[in-house]
Amino acid sequence: MKSKNKRPSALRQELSRDWNTFKQLHFKGRLQFLWDYYRWRILACTFTLIAICTFARMFWEGQKPCRLSVCVVLNTEDDCSGWFSSFTKTLQADGKPGQVDINQDQPFDYDNQYYYVQEIEVMTTVSSQRMDVAICGEDMYSYLLALNACLPLDQGLSKGLADALSEQGRLVYDTANLTIDEDGNVDPADGIDGFYAADLTGTEFERTYNQTGEEDEPLYAVVIANTEHLADCETLLKELFDI
User: Fold this and answer.
1) d(CA 50, CA 141)
2) b/e burial code for range 34-52 (CB count within 10 A of at least 16 → b)
3) CB-based contact 80:74 (threshold 8 Å)
4) Rounded distance, CA 144 to CA 141, Å?
5) Which stretches within the chain are classed as H helix?
6) Exposed, middle or buried by CB within 10 Å (0-12, 13-18, 19+), for 30?
């Protein structure tokens, strides 16, 4: 039986012609040739590679254990990531692995017309246990109180730390669980009193990141009641208040 010579496909013939042309060109000509005839394929491959690397990095980061999730809503536009980078090293000095997840992208301002969206975002973050500590101003603190999401510091913290904060005059006494009904009324009987925050006024952190020029804009540290990382929350409070 006679063997039949298979004719190369049109694609192979085209690639062969392009390769022969490519070899005959000088360096700049080769670059121009590739751009003129293959730029869409090159761009498609580049974007595909970037997408793969991005998703791979997200997957890898998601596998890393997280020791602490902190939501920081400052009264200024300052970036406090440098402070938390230093704190992460302090936290990891005990030899345990895990990162500190810092969320500085959560706005919270009752003067904003979309504040109800911000409330939903905070409520979702708290309920899904993606917030261990909040460092925030009056607006977010009052909302966390309304959610009854704040840990009573005098009861939830270790006695030594609670006593140290009390001696420094840091513990803030307030009422939680107060909500406004449809008629705009608040029932005081629903309130639960306690020490729900620590006042950061005068600390190095507050002096560095809360210089608003307004003395009536305090900054609070709040431990979220459903945290599963209480020991690391205490380490953060000790660092914030230099205890």
Assistant:
1) 40
2) eeeeeeeeeeeeeeeeeee
3) yes
4) 5
5) 10-24, 27-63, 81-91, 115-127, 138-146, 153-156, 159-167, 204-209, 230-240
6) middle
pLDDT tens readout for residues 145-156: 999 999 999 999
Q: Is the pTM of this model over 0.85?
A: no
- C-alpha to C-alpha distance for 126 and 94, rounded to whole angstroms: 27
> Which phi and psi (to 5°) does residue 64 adopt?
-70, 135
What are the tokens at 122?
């905070």
8 Å CB contact between 224 and 130: no
* Packing angle, helices 115-127 and 138-146, rounded to 10: 60
Condensed to tens digits (0 to 9), the pLDDT of residues 157-216 reads: 999 999 999 999 999 999 998 876 666 676 777 789 999 999 999 999 998 998 766 566
State the Cα–Cα distance between residues 227 and 83, nearest whole angstrom: 22
Closest CA to 237 of 211, 182, 200, 192: 200
